[in-house]
Here is the input.
Amino acid sequence: MALREKFGKLVLLEKLDESSFAASYRAARVSRSGFDRIVTLVRYSDAVSTHPEAAPRLMEEARAASRLQIPGLVRTLGIGRVERSYYASLELLEGRTLRPTIDRAFEEGFPFAAENALMVASRAAVVLESLHERQDGKGRPLVHGLVNPSHLVLTWEGDVRLAGLGVWPSLRGTGLLGDADRRYLAPEQAAGERGGPPSDVYSLALVLLETLSRGAADGPDPLAALEGARFVTTTGEEEPLPRPLVELLELGLASDPASRYPSMGDLRQAIDTLLFSGDFTPTTFNLAYFMQTIFREEMEREAGALAEERQADYSEFLPAPVPEAPVPKTPEPTAGETPAAAPPPGRQVSD
Here is the structure.
């Protein structure tokens, strides 16, 4: 639904999605000189924004995430607060998260091919592997903690990006995570633990299972659903999951962290071994074609909307000029927003 709602020095243009703890929008960022760029804005719920522990932790985690230069992470551009609402502005990616993609694919009778599902999992694993190589202030590996279909973005061009970094450590133990998000937690996280790299291994394996066979990941023990899980072949027929894939998922979904793949790198290698075994033909083109086929109308509509939004007049939302103000020596950040770290040389970020 189209909006033109002032939110600090941003203009909310269209609501994109909503979770138990935040809503996301496409938004225009403006400054005294006029329109700056279109971004994705994540506006945290009132319950999160007013929580005495969650809100400051979110800001701290968002600042830390903005300093990470890991290819495949959705880049944080800025963070801040407007009145009572905390928010983060992120680079705009044209596409859909995996959650509506899975739903649309099965509704249209055009479910994920195994090679596309494996490619998405492999590319997400690469990002998580790089993340786990970094350490926090206590010397522990960084973890995502909330890997789920709503935090994996698939672009129209077939790229895969990971969002939601910092949400789990900020909201853990607050009761602010809804059931839809908690469903992808590893057993140790559901029991109250912080979790570690094996927790992300479990969550990504669960996402892979759901992408392949919608509904098979439901229930308290996804391993129990493996025997009856089915996937759609390239000829459109439903077949049981291949035994090598079942074995991969069994290791990834073990309830005991010590019984899972030792690292995200091990899971990625197992996925890639299967993906490039010769039984599949994984290509970025195939994934892009799949996305553009099931979202063709939305893709065309949004391309038109973006073109209009980038040319629109936002003068009514610009801050009033300050008389006799000295010319700043450096560009000013958006009011109320902490700018994120600049991208490394040569890195291109979507506008």
Summary: The first helix runs from residue 46 to 49. Confidence is low (pLDDT under 50) at residues 344-351. The radius of gyration is 21 Å.
